[in-house]
Amino acid sequence: MEFKDRHILLGITGGIAAYKSVELLRLLKKAGADVHVAMTEAALQFVGRTTFEVLSENCVLTNLWKDTASSVTHIDIATSIDAAIIAPATANFIGKYAHGIADDALLTTLLAVTSPVMICPSMNTDMYQNIRVQRNLDILEQDGIHILDPDDGVLACKTVGAGRLPDPWFIFDRLCKLLTPKDLVGRQILVTAGPTIEAIDPVRYVSNHSSGKMGYAIAEAAEQRGARVTLISGPVSLDPPVGVECIFVESCEQMAAAVFSHLAAADIIVKVAAVADYRPIDPGTRKIKKNQASKEITIAMTENMDILNRIGELKTDRQFLVGFAAETNDLEKHALAKIKKKNLDMIAANLVGTGDSGFKTNTNKVKLFFKDGSSKDIPLMDKHKVAHILLDTIIEQTG
Ligand code: CTP
To answer: Which residue owns the Cα nearest ligand 1 atom 16?
Structure first.
């Protein structure tokens, strides 16, 4: 998500996990946010203010009397931010915040915040499960504060259980979701992504260069916008998107089985996967040995099912079907032919082999074509932004 022109308050309280907030700050800054950091006295025992000052490029608020040139600075921060995130949030902070106590700079600032607030509890498991802490978390939740549950794991105190601060990228992802307008609530989206691999023998396969990045970006963006998302993915080296039901497959046959068992529930189907058109006829059970007598080998292949084509035959009027087409030439001609042949509502076509667009890259230059022959150019941009524009367009088209 783009955080340009977004102002965020990052509150840090005194837990050992405070060191993870450095990385969270870095992620926010990298995304373009203007971040104001407020630290409690206890947080300063764990991490130094200089680190946060340098990385945030703003003064760190620790003390209402010493830090500020003007006594209203905490109010300025509170009223200018788009969201506040408190990570880690200690039991002491949670108790005070739940009861409106404002005895330090962070708590005082938070009392004046009207934008969304997310807190990330992190502490020893017994403390976290203590009835008083849970009661205070309930109060905050009922007040509309977003609580990000801690992870289970080995804690700094050597106990094993709930209380670990989630990874900074996960906190960042949930903050993105908090700030993303929920215009896909109630929609069920089915996305396919990545390549398929088709076995030649038990140790070899044929596949393609698809990285899965575009499909994963669409699944992630749709989830953040409130959709229920199922992602059917071929083998890729990407982290599964948070909050998305992921089904991992290898071959076209497996992808087809997963797609058709989830098709009926889907309102929107986005078929990004680069499915192999052919598969070796007989992968057998034994490794093919090198043939000393010949320098050539022929692998007999047979056609795979065209999953998209079959979805086009089965789809109902309430379902919106989007195909993808990676072409090396005659983009428009091939895209329009595929829309017609496969009964699509929209196709996202891109030229591959241009270096900055298509397989493996983080950017993509896509042209969207519609059933009525019209089209829309999306200039070269990050695949996450392309994903949001694609979803904007689907919303426009489906009303
Ligand atoms: N597709 C599919 N099943 C296949 C092949 C393709 O579902 N066996 C889908 C892809 O997921 C994509 C679209 O069809 O959404 C277009 O894929 P592409 O490979 O560009 O098109 P093909 O129809 O296979 O045509 P060609 O390879 O000749 O360009």
So the answer is: 325
